[in-house]
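Deliverable D2.4 — example input (structure tokens):
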């Protein structure tokens, strides 16, 4: 008799082999994930800059047509009504936005004629993609009391100056010296510092915590962010109420000031015990015929350690959060005659 051996064939993975494969896959994913995230952020940053280029072109198309740059907020509606924004004024000059040419800017955006363009709540509730950064995490409508979209936020704000926004208590109505001003139609000659050295727009975060109608806003600029944050206790606070209405021409919604460098945290601890990064503003533009509006409205971005910004000549660049305050404020003035170096 011949002895035969029973040979068993091994057709599967052992537990140890399976764990090794899983470990290798985990290491590869760990190595690749930062690169994928970095590529996605680079794409979002590029798309954000492209939005600013389109808006810059629209601003210049407006100037070519009207021979002036648009105000940050438009005149034409009754005192006490929210004025139209400069962003709304330039939308008809964006290619393809023929629908926005139907807006009646002589009437509030809540008027029947404007509401009927986009029922039920009108043009204010429409998302304008060019005004929204791809990296915005709160790019959602602001609902009315019935949960129906009433407003839509934005991420690209107009430069309205350093701290003073508008002094309507005197006939000349001094403004903050920024690229744009409430009710003022500025010509290119007004930009003594040069269009390439004057900030036009910069990023802001949608639905920013804000305190408004602060009666005790000091006449002098707050010296630091903590001092500015304490002012919020004297105003009407909203945890997601700033930069929430692209149609409204008030600085808290469509503007920024160069009081502090980009992404400065302005701390305010509310009665709910939470600390917020807040914007603050006195009486808002147009609330009364003699309102004096001073505001700290900081440029902020979801892009790390920088904000994207456009200059008045239409160029776009990224500006680091660590920019020198004097340089940031010099870029924010249209006629300050400051000397600005090339590295900012």
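Example output (designed residues):
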């Amino acid at each position: 008799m011949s002895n035969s051996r029973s040979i068993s064939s091994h057709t599967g993975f052992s537990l140890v082999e399976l764990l090794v494969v899983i470990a290798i896959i985990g290491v590869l994913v760990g190595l690749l994930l930062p690169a994928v995230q970095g590529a996605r952020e680079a794409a979002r940053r590029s798309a954000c800059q492209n939005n600013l280029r389109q808006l810059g072109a629209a601003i210049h198309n407006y100037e070519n047509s009207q021979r002036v740059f648009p105000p940050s907020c438009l005149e034409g509606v009754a005192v006490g009504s929210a004025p139209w924004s400069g962003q709304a004024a330039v939308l008809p000059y964006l290619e393809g936005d023929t629908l926005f040419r139907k807006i009646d800017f002589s009437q509030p955006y809540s008027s029947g004629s404007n509401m009927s363009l986009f029922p039920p709540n009108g043009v204010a509730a429409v998302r304008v993609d060019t005004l929204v950064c791809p990296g915005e995490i709160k790019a959602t409508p602001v609902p009315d009391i019935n949960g129906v979209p009433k407003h839509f936020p934005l991420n690209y704000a107009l430069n309205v100056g350093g701290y003073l926004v508008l002094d309507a208590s005197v006939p000349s109505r001094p403004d903050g010296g920024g690229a744009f001003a409430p009710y003022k139609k500025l010509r290119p000659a007004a930009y003594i510092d040069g269009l390439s050295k004057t900030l036009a727009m910069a990023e802001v975060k949608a639905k920013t915590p804000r305190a408004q109608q602060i009666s005790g806003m000091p006449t002098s600029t707050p010296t630091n962010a903590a001092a500015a944050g304490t002012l919020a206790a004297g105003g009407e606070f909203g945890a997601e109420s700033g930069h929430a209405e692209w149609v409204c021409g008030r600085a808290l919604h469509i503007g920024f000031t160069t009081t502090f460098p980009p992404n400065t945290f302005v701390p305010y601890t509310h009665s709910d015990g939470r600390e917020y990064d807040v914007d603050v503003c006195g009486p808002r533009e147009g609330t009364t015929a003699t309102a004096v509006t001073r505001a700290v409205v900081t440029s902020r971005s979801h892009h790390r350690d920088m904000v994207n910004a456009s200059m008045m000549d239409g160029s776009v660049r990224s500006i680091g959060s660590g920019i020198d305050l004097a340089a940031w404020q010099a870029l924010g003035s249209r006629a300050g005659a400051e000397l600005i170096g090339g590295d900012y």
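Confidence is low (pLDDT under 50) at residues 1-7.
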